[in-house]
Amino acid sequence: MLTRKIKIMNNFKKLYILSLIAGVFVNTSCKKDGIIDRAESVNGNALLKIYHLSPDAPTLNFYANNQKITAVGPNTAGAEQGIAFSSIFPGKEYFALPAGTSAFKAVVPASSTVLPGAVLNLGSAEFKANSRYSVFVIGKMSEASTLIIEDDVNVPDPTKAYIRFISTIPTEQKLDVTYTQTNVTPNVKGTVFSSASYKEIKGFQPIEPSGVYTLTLDTTATTGKVLGTFKDFVPVAGRKYTLISTGILGGTGSQVPNLINSTNKY
Question: Is the whole model's pTM more than 0.85, yes or no?
Answer without folding.
Answer: no
